Amino acid sequence: MTPTAAQPAILANPTAPAAHWSGVSRVYPARRRQPERVALNNVTLEVPPGQFLALLGPNGSGKSTLLKLLAGTDRPDAGDVALLGADPAAGASASARARLGVVFQHPGLDPLLTIAENLRTAAALFGMTGAQAQAAIERTAAELELTDRLHDRVASLSGGLARRADLARAMLSGPDVLLLDEPSTGLDHAARASFMDLVARLHADAPPERPRTVILSTHLMDEAERAQRVVCMSEGRVALDGEPRALRERLGERTVRVHADGAPDAFARLGLTPQRAGGAWTAPLPDAEGASELAASLAREGFAFELGPATLADVYLHATGQPLNPETEPEAPTPAPLRKRGER
């Protein structure tokens, strides 16, 4: 990748973490009929250069606030925030801004302008000359497969294409750090998967001498599974932190999900502690023998249930006591054949 005038060839502080929050708290004061809200409570996190990190949690868990602090659009009430070794809220130059790309939950493009016009506006903010802007637009459009749509107005694009154009704006300067705040909101499953494929490629294709850090906030476990590291946020605190596979293995190989008003007696007999979410009881199963014994007990008691591998949604539920998606039915494990009432 050839650096532009707004894109430094090397990092000013190559040994600094890509992102760092130290003892950060943020409290939003009461407004009108809304009470005071603690968005972050003494959060400390460090993200090394080149890591793909997912902040996983439901709305209100503090994910977006962490990203706003890192982008410099908000300030903490306590603690310190650093982006590539510098204070992001200290009035960065165009060159410094070019090292950060941001895609927030709500679109950042002017719908009445074409993709190219939006990108030229962004290039001007990065301090690029006309020639530099044109080269950056052509490179980014090719990278994100938007070359044939550059002269389409944003308002005419599908949801998936519009988000890709928003990503192009964030990638225009070839940033070292890419922040994505619930970027797939409003997209259908296919468009969401395509968008996340693109994000994964942008992370993987960065050159070794200049790795790209991606920090994604999401409430969807399948998006978080794509990351190298997952930080589960709950009520403004870090609940869990680790690689996706390690987090699942900590819970156990399999889980059971039982559709019932009250917790079945079989849970207590086997010493299991279920959590309730979305009209079902979920519990981790320590081993295959325990799974077989529980399945037999539930079948005798006439409960409908599902057995499947542990998911990040299960991990989150059992770490916090709260469902990952409280507004909807939690994403279920891959179901085993459903046992009907009275079936043995």
Q: How would you describe the overall organization of this protein?
A:
The protein has 344 residues and is of the alpha/beta class. The protein is built from eleven helices and 13 strands. The chain has helices spanning 63-71, 94-97, 115-125, 130-143, 159-171, 189-204, 221-224, 244-251, 265-269, 288-301, 312-320, and strands at residues 19-28, 37-47, 52-56, 78-83, 100-103, 177-181, 213-218, 229-234, 237-242, 254-259, 275-277, 280-285, 305-309. It is elongated, with a radius of gyration of 23 Å. The termini are far apart.
Classified in CATH, the superfamily of the largest domain is: P-loop containing nucleotide triphosphate hydrolases
The total beta strand count reads 13
Question: Topology as H/E string?
Answer: EEEHEHEHHHEHEHEEHEHEEHEH
The CATH topology name of the largest domain reads Rossmann fold
Task: Give the biggest sheet.
Answer: 6 strands, mixed
Alpha-carbon distance between the termini?
Answer: 63 Å
Radius of gyration: 23 Å
| Spatial strand arrangement across the major sheet | 5-6-7-3-8-9
- Overall pLDDT metric: 87
Which regions are unreliable across 5 or more consecutive residues at pLDDT < 50? 1-12, 329-344
Kindly estimate the percentage of residues that lie in beta strands according to DSSP. Answer: 15-25%
Derived structural class: alpha/beta
Instruction: Supply the CATH architecture of the largest domain.
Output: 3-Layer(aba) Sandwich
